[in-house]
Write a structure and sequence with these properties.
By secondary structure, this protein is an alpha/beta fold. 46% of the residues lie in helices and 18% in strands. The protein has a five-stranded parallel sheet, sandwiched between helices. The protein has a five-stranded mixed sheet with strand order 6-7-10-8-9. Strand 2, helix 2 and strand 3 form a beta-alpha-beta unit. The radius of gyration is 23 Å and the shape is elongated. 33% of the residues are buried. The chain binds S-adenosylmethionine. S-adenosylmethionine binds next to helix 5, strand 7 and strand 10.
């Protein structure tokens, strides 16, 4: 029988596909990372399929038992607490062993924080590397940031609220003040915030209010030489007020356009908005 890898919401309970609900209703057993947590989702959709605990601490030991049940004819669905299983979540050991045992593995696609963040970041999405969680120890974290600093494609990390400020400060120490970074917080939830800016501004945002450091985060770093437009915009906001103290609106917009490389009309528009 088949093993279904089912994506579930990353915050908003409505973000689940018809196929995911149908699969969860019809399989014999749902393997869940945290059965108490997933109970809320199952209750919301009237799904009464029995659940079994399947998490990082019992994955290796449980995989053999699960595969034996699959080979005996049972169908199962693997879900995690949020998003797509196996993406910084348990399931790799099970899927690789299931495939080796000849079990059919079927993905039921849906939300994942990486893709949601990337799609709304305004950072180049044509090519990217996903590194999972930034390491909790600073030495290892700096090493990983240094690796990502040389990429000419977008680098994506997950980060916990406990370390979000420390990590952005480490990013600034390696990448400097000019690199464009996106902080995607609480995606699909009430306090969803997606800020794409240079690091000093993002750090200022986190420090402005303790609440800004709460929640779940994805960090996206633009590749070398990419997304200069955002740097230009941030530069524009810094220099325009200074220029306006010395000269008229039209001259300030003209000079700002020369400095930032941004279109003169757009610079003039910003002058009016100030
Ligand atoms: N499997 C999940 C997925 O497909 O995105 C990821 C699970 S991982 C254990 C949890 C981490 O994903 C969080 O610490 C955070 O970095 C990121 N994440 C999950 N949901 C998120 C959300 N709604 N907004 C921002 N980041 C989120």
């Amino acid at each position: 029988m088949s093993l279904y890898i089912v994506a579930t919401p990353i915050g908003n309970l409505d973000d689940i596909t018809f196929r995911a609900i149908e699969t969860l209703k019809t399989v014999d057993i749902i393997l869940a990372e945290d059965t108490r947590h997933s109970k809320k989702l199952l209750n919301h959709y009237d799904i009464s399929t029995p659940m079994r605990a399947f998490h990082e601490h019992n994955e290796t030991q449980k995989s053999t038992e699960v595969i034996n049940d699959l080979l005996a004819g049972k169908s199962m669905a693997l879900i995690s607490d949020a998003g797509t299983p196996l993406i910084s979540d348990p399931g790799y050991v099970l899927v690789s062993e299931a495939k080796r045992a000849g079990v059919k593995v079927v993905p039921i696609p849906g939300p994942s924080a990486i893709i949601s963040a990337l799609s709304a970041s305004g950072i180049a999405s044509d090519s990217f590397s996903f590194f999972g969680f930034l390491p909790s120890k600073q030495t290892a974290r700096l090493k990983m940031i240094q690796i990502s600093a040389h990429l000419d494609e977008t680098a994506i990390f997950y980060e916990s609220p406990k370390r979000i400020l420390a990590s952005l400060l480490d990013l600034q120490s390696v990448l400097g003040d000019e690199r464009v970074v996106c902080l995607a917080k609480e995606l699909t939830k009430s306090f969803e915030t997606i800020k794409t800016d240079i690091l000093p501004n993002l750090i200022e945002y986190l420090q402005a209010d303790d609440a800004h450091q709460k929640g779940e985060f994805v960090i996206l770093i633009s590749g070398i030489g990419k997304d200069n437009k955002v740097v230009g915009e941030a530069q524009l906001d810094k220099i325009l007020p200074i220029l306006l103290m010395e000269m008229g609106a039209s001259k300030a917009a003209k000079l700002a356009a020369k400095i930032t490389g941004i279109d003169k009309k757009h610079c003039y528009q910003r002058v009016i908005e100030l």
